[in-house]
Amino acid sequence: MFVELRKLPGVDRLLQEPAVQNLIQIYGRELVVEGLRHALDTARDQIRRGASCPPAEEIMIQAEGYLRALARPTLRPVINASGVIIHTNLGRAPLSEETRMAMLDAARGYTNLEYDLEAGQRGSRYVHAEQLLCRLTGAEAALVVNNNAGAVLLILTALAQGREVIISRSQLIEIGGGFRIPDVMRQSGAHLVEVGTTNRTHLHDYEEAIGPETAALMRAHHSNFRIIGFTAEVPLEDLVALAGEHGLLVFDDLGSGTLLDTAAFGLAHEPTMQESVAVGADIVSCSGDKLLGGPQAGIILGRAKLIAHLRRHPLTRALRVDKTTLAGLQATLLHYLKGEAVDKIPVWQMIASRPDTLKQRAERWAQALSQTGVRAMVTEGRSTVGGGSLPGETLPTWLVALGVDSPDALAARLRAGEPPVIARIEDDRLCLDPRTVFEEEEETLLRAVQAAL
Ligand SMILES: *Cc1c(COP(=O)(O)O)cnc(C)c1O
After folding, report:
1. Which domains are seen in the chain, by residue range?
2. What is this structure's pTM?
3. Which of 278, 280, 408, 438 has the CB geometry, 3.0–4.6 Å to 240, for a possible disulfide?
4. CB 171 within 8 A of CB 196
């Protein structure tokens, strides 16, 4: 054993090797020394357990593996073959090419983020997406913050702290990631007044709860669940009329926030931003990265006086968005202005994908995969929109279903691949849904599946 241990090369000798010199170019000398020490320690352990001294090449390969793992980012692109379009765990909306380019341009150099080019002095970052948002929704004013959770917190804090906000019991939602309306309300210092029952709430429930401390009536989108059966909720118009009689605000948390009518794509109608504004909600909030299909952001629309008040609130500074977000949001909104959202925004391209096109793609995949000897079948299935919008609604799709002994093991191997592939398991088969896979990802996907098989 001691003879074998003594055969191990020293770090200094290994550092002279051309292969190691190469590694130093990539990772820097300090990390390479760390990698070599790690590889040598491993070899020493193995020798003590009875192995013979490995060749120097093997130690260098070990070191390279260590360095590669160390330098690999934890946040990596994945292929989404799950058929869930707005998948929060997978980063929600993929962005349009124009949006990505705008974000890249803003990131590369300086911008007039807070600089008024005409006056040559300090300007406001909040002007950037505002005009587009107002034009597209009919709102008097708009404000963009970090995300919709932040928007809700800001609105409740700035407009209702220490006062009461009335909301239907059926809307006291919890969405993923620990966002619960009652908790956000408590955090804001507004007092929650819940009215109605789990399944039914009437206008008179709100009316009876209004008192001297009431600041606002709030409506929250159900987001990720649906109540069915004997149910009743009060339409936004009625809340607006009631609030008007009592001089109260109406705050509508739309959740997903869409500018396009989802009913045109065979889905239920998701309330749109422009509808909420038109009906007369004083303040409306939604996400930028759900059905809008843009970067993560919280969008606030509302009356000019209220938005001006929000803008001055200290919390706004803590929730502020960066230049890349604003650049990306502007580019995404521009697609709507030009009437090209369905052609350019990935979320809408996916929603609008036609079943016959999806079937052709699934057939192509199945054929390619069958050549590796696996049983690949094309079957009808359902895709979902996700992202807390359109709960229970699905779109017809065509899946490639792989008949393997252990779909769970295959799914795990797919997740461990490079790039990782996220599939779904249905009826004990591993299924791939072409709807959420970009055409330019297809070859990589098929190669990854073949490797995992
Ligand atoms: C998604 C959602 C939120 C939170 O939005 P984020 O952009 O994820 O912060 C708040 N309210 C509702 C109703 C939602 O659906």
Report:
1. 2-71 (no CATH), 79-88+349-452 (3.90.1150.110), 95-344 (3.40.640.10)
2. 0.93
3. 280
4. no
